[in-house]
Specification:
Blueprint: E1 6-10, H1 11-15, E2 31-35, H2 38-53, E3 70-71, E4 77-78, H3 79-94, H4 104-120, E5 127-129, E6 133-136, H5 137-156, H6 162-182, H7 188-204, H8 208-218, H9 238-252, H10 259-269, E7 278-279, E8 293-294, H11 299-309, H12 312-324, H13 333-338, E9 355-360, E10 365-370, E11 373-378, E12 385-389, E13 392-401, E14 407-408, E15 415-417, E16 420-432, E17 456-470, E18 475-483, E19 488-495, E20 500-502, E21 505-506, E22 513-515, E23 521-525, E24 528-533, E25 555-561, E26 564-570
Parallel strand pairs: 22-25
Antiparallel strand pairs: 1-2, 3-4, 5-6, 7-8, 9-10, 10-11, 11-12, 12-13, 13-14, 13-19, 15-16, 16-17, 17-18, 18-26, 19-25, 20-23, 21-22, 23-24, 24-26
Length: 571
C-alpha cells in the first residue's frame, strides 16, 4: 500500500481520538492503518471540479487593485469568493488523489488569491460580508475557522515552494486574530463561531489572548434550553453551525463538557425529522424559518459523536445523508481531511424513532409522527400546523377573520388536554368615547392626549379555539370561533409546489388558489397523497382585510361566518 494513502493510529491514540488533530499522527509499532475511504476520495474528486471552475471569477488584470482576488456573481471583489477558492485549492494541492496534487500552477494561483485576500482585509483585521456586514468580526471568524484547516493541509502537503506561500497565509490569519480578540458580534451563534476560530488559531500559535477571549465568551454559558434547542431555534441553519463549532472548541481546548450541548441538540433533532428526511424549520427565529432544511449540514457533528459515543442512531443519520445528499458532504471535507480518526467505519446503524408524540414546550413545538406521515403543531406562528406524508406536504394551515383588521390567528401556547392539543386566542374590538375634560389639551394636540385616556364602549369579542387530535391514521382539526356574529372567516391549506389536486375547484380571480366545497380533496406528489376535508364555502372573500398576504404556493380555501364551527381531517 502507498504509505501516503493511510495514517497510522496506535491503540492509545484511538482512545484519545476526539482530541487529536492531523499533525499528531505518526506511525508506531502497534499502529492500525486508517485508509481514506472511497467516499472521501470521491469528495476530493468533486473538489477538483470546483478548482477547475474557479478561474472565471478571478481578477486577472495585474493593474487592478485587487489582482488575485475573486469576484461575486455581481462583479464585486469578494473576500468570501476568494477564501472559497483558497480552501478548494489547498484541499486539492494537499490530496494525492487530486489531479492538482502538489501542482505548481495551482500553488501560484493560490498565492495570487492570498495576496488578493490581504487587499480585501481591513487594517483592523476584519473583512466585509458585502451583502450586509462591514468590518465584521463574526464573518471574519466564519472565514478563519475554515482557512486554518486549509493552512494546516497546505503546510503538511510538503509541496515544493510552499514556504513562499505560508507567510502570506500567516499574515492574513494573524491580522484576523487581532480582530477576533477584541471584536463584537451580532447574534448568539456568533459567540461560538468566534470562539472556534480563536481555538484554531490557538492550536497554531498558542497566544494566551486567544484563549482568554474564548473563555470570556464561554463564561456566558451555552444557550441551550431544556428541549435541546439553541436560542435562535435555527434548525435549518445555525444549529448545525453551533454543533460543529462547539466540537471544534471542545476538541481543540480539551473541554469535553462542550460535547454535551451538541449531544442534546442532536437528540432533539432525531424528533424533528420528517419521513422524507427533511427537518422542521417553522419554529426558527432566523432566515431559515419555513424553508426546506435537511440533516446534511449536521453530518460532521453526527459523524463525530457517532464515533465518539458509539451511537448507532447518529450513524443512521450519517448513512441517510451519504445516500440522499452525497454532494453535501463537501461542506465537511476539510473537517474530515484534517482529522483521520473520522475515516473510521461508523458503528452499526440503529433505527431512528419513527412513531412518537413529543412536546418541545420551550420551542413551542409538538411533533406527532407515525411512520410515513407526521404533523407539527406550532405556537406563536400563524402557520400553526403542518402535515407531511412522504413528499406530499401541507406546509401550513392558517385561519383569519376580518375582525377589526387583526384577525390572523396564532396561539401563544399549545395546551395538552387529554389526548388533544388546544390552541386559543381571544380578541377585543373596542370603540372609544370622548375625552373627559381633564384629559383634553387646550391646543387640541392629539399627541398630548393618549388614546388610553379614552373610555371604551361597545366592545366586540372573538375567541378562537382549535382542538387537534390524532384520528384514523391522520389528524382531526376542530375549529370554533365564537363572539361577535357574522364575521367572515377564511381557512387556508397551503401546500408545497409540485403536486396535483383532485376534488377542488379553481378559486375565482385568484391564481394558484382553489376552493373546497365537497367532502374530500386530495393533493398528490408522485405516489404520496394527502386527503383533506370536508369543505365549506358560504362566501368567496379569500384575502380578508388584516390577514397575511397569500403565500406563493398552491392553496386551498375554506370559508365561513362566525359563529364558526368546522372540523377538517387530514390523512
Amino acid at each position: 500500500m502507498d504509505r501516503r494513502k493511510f495514517v497510522a493510529l496506535g491503540s492509545t491514540s484511538l482512545c484519545m481520538m476526539p482530541l487529536i488533530g492531523f499533525s499528531a499522527f505518526t506511525p508506531s509499532k502497534n499502529s492500525i492503518a486508517l485508509v481514506k475511504p472511497s467516499w472521501l476520495i470521491d469528495l476530493i474528486k468533486i473538489n477538483d471540479t470546483y478548482v477547475k471552475g474557479s478561474p472565471a471569477s478571478k481578477i486577472s488584470d495585474p493593474t487592478n487593485k485587487y489582482f488575485g482576488a475573486y469576484m461575486s456573481g455581481y462583479g464585486i471583489p469578494n473576500p468570501h469568493n476568494t477564501s472559497g477558492f483558497i480552501n478548494v485549492a489547498c484541499t486539492a494541492i494537499s490530496s494525492e488523489e487530486s489531479v492538482y496534487y502538489q501542482s505548481q500552477d495551482l500553488l501560484k494561483e493560490l498565492l495570487d488569491a492570498l495576496n488578493g485576500l490581504l487587499k480585501l482585509q481591513h487594517a483592523d483585521g476584519t473583512i466585509d460580508l458585502v451583502d450586509t456586514n462591514f468590518h465584521s468580526t463574526p464573518d471574519t471568524a466564519f472565514m478563519v475557522k475554515r482557512l486554518v484547516q486549509s493552512y494546516n493541509l497546505l503546510k503538511q502537503s510538503k509541496t515544493k515552494g510552499v514556504e513562499k506561500v505560508l507567510p502570506v497565509f500567516e499574515t492574513f490569519l494573524k491580522r484576523a486574530g487581532e480582530a477576533l480578540i477584541t471584536g463584537g458580534i451580532h447574534t448568539p451563534n456568533h459567540r461560538w463561531v468566534v470562539s472556534a476560530a480563536l481555538t484554531k488559531l490557538y492550536e497554531l500559535w498558542p497566544d494566551k489572548r486567544y484563549l482568554n477571549r474564548v473563555n470570556q465568551w464561554l463564561a456566558e454559558h451555552i444557550d441551550l434550553d431544556p428541549d435541546g434547542q439553541y436560542t435562535e431555534k435555527s434548525t435549518g441553519g445555525y444549529s448545525a453551525v453551533i454543533d460543529r463549532v462547539l466540537i471544534t472548541v471542545a476538541k481543540g481546548l480539551h473541554k469535553p463538557e462542550l460535547y454535551e450541548p451538541v449531544r442534546k441538540n442532536l437528540k432533539m433533532m432525531r424528533y424533528y425529522m420528517h419521513p422524507n428526511g427533511e427537518v422542521v424549520t417553522e419554529a426558527s427565529n432566523r432566515q431559515d424559518k419555513g424553508q426546506i432544511g435537511t440533516m446534511e449540514s449536521y453530518y460532521y457533528a453526527c459523524r463525530y459523536l457517532a464515533l465518539l459515543d458509539n451511537d448507532g442512531e447518529l450513524a443512521s443519520i450519517c448513512r441517510m445523508v451519504e445516500k440522499k445528499y452525497p454532494n453535501s458532504l463537501m461542506g465537511s471535507l476539510n473537517y474530515l481531511l484534517e482529522d483521520p480518526t473520522q475515516w473510521k467505519e461508523l458503528p452499526a446503524s440503529k433505527p431512528l424513532p419513527t412513531s412518537y408524540v413529543k412536546s418541545f414546550p420551550y420551542s413551542g413545538v409538538v411533533r406527532i409522527r407515525r411512520e410515513n406521515w407526521d404533523t407539527t403543531l406550532l405556537s406563536n406562528n400563524p402557520g400553526w400546523l403542518t402535515f407531511h406524508k412522504g413528499n406530499a406536504i401541507l406546509q401550513g394551515m392558517r385561519i383569519a377573520s376580518s375582525f377589526f383588521g387583526k384577525g390572523q390567528f396564532q396561539s401563544e401556547k399549545i395546551q395538552q388536554v387529554g389526548n388533544t392539543w388546544v390552541l386559543n386566542k381571544k380578541l377585543e374590538g373596542p370603540y372609544f368615547q370622548p375625552f373627559e375634560p381633564q384629559f383634553i389639551s387646550p391646543d387640541g394636540d392629539l399627541g398630548k392626549m393618549p388614546k388610553s385616556n379614552r373610555k371604551q364602549s361597545n366592545v366586540q369579542y372573538l375567541e378562537t379555539t382549535i382542538t387537534i387530535a390524532e384520528e384514523n391514521n391522520g389528524m382531526s382539526i376542530q375549529i370554533e370561533m365564537n363572539g361577535t356574529e357574522n364575521v367572515p372567516v377564511t381557512l387556508e391549506l397551503i401546500f408545497r409546489q409540485g403536486g396535483n389536486f383532485s376534488g377542488v375547484e379553481p378559486a375565482p380571480n385568484k391564481a394558484n388558489a382553489y376552493v373546497l366545497k365537497g367532502k374530500t380533496g386530495t393533493y398528490t406528489v408522485g405516489t404520496d397523497t394527502i386527503e383533506f376535508g370536508p369543505g365549506t364555502l358560504p362566501h368567496t372573500w379569500l384575502q380578508l382585510r388584516g390577514a397575511l398576504p397569500a403565500m406563493d404556493s398552491p392553496t386551498v380555501y375554506l370559508t365561513g361566518f362566525t359563529p364558526f364551527k368546522h372540523t377538517i381531517k387530514l390523512s
